[in-house]
Design a protein that fits this description.
The structure is a single chain. By secondary structure, this protein is α/β, with parallel strands linked by helices. Helices cover about 40% and strands about 30% of the residues. It has a seven-stranded mixed beta sheet, with helices on both faces. The longest helix has 16 residues, at about 75-90.
Length: about 180
């Protein structure tokens, strides 16, 4: 896994890492540290442009390393509109399962879920345990580490210019192989 981070004035401040498994038909994104939605809005097109991106593919957003969000209600609503743009022109809706084990991450994920329920786009499920995550995705894994080790996930291959660095997830995958 490569860490996709966009830089504003040379500061790497939004680490969002993603992998796509065509075998499991699943996209996995790990959000770490302090998340700023303005930077997410710059990164999201790279995910959509990835050669392995598929409209409607289930997504697992892992907020286990999420520590803070620098966003208000309007910014989250705006980000949801961005996520829903491809959904509005398709009958194939994306299921996004958010793993949010901390109170802070769970609160932000629930706010996003509540907003998503008001639109006909992405379908969001928020889970506080990995067991709930895999039940929601209908997958038979015990841990996210097991999933990453088994899923034959593809490295990101965005067509947009991004800054890529080795990451914790990449190191974890190397250890599992």
């Amino acid at each position: 896994m490569k860490q996709l981070s966009l830089s504003l004035i040379g500061e790497i401040s939004l680490p969002i890492e993603y992998l796509i498994s065509t075998d499991l038909n699943l996209a996995y994104a790990q959000w770490s540290g302090r998340v700023r939605l303005v930077e997410f809005r710059k990164m999201f097109p790279a995910y959509l442009a990835d050669q392995n991106y598929l409209q409607g593919r289930p997504e697992l957003c892992d907020f286990s390393n999420f520590t803070d969000m620098d966003a208000d209600f309007k910014q989250i609503w705006s980000a949801l509109h961005m996520v829903n743009a491809p959904e509005m022109h398709s009958d194939c809706k994306t299921k996004c399962v958010v793993y949010a084990p901390s109170d802070l991450a769970f609160g932000f994920a629930r706010m996003y879920q509540s907003l998503a329920e008001q639109q006909a786009g992405v379908q969001v499920a928020v889970c506080s345990t990995q067991k709930e995550v895999f039940a929601a995705l209908n997958l038979e894994f015990s841990t996210i580490s097991d999933l990453l080790g088994f899923g034959r996930f593809h490295q990101p291959s965005p067509s947009l210019e991004t800054v890529c660095q080795p990451s914790l997830a990449q190191t974890t995958l190397a250890r599992l192989q």
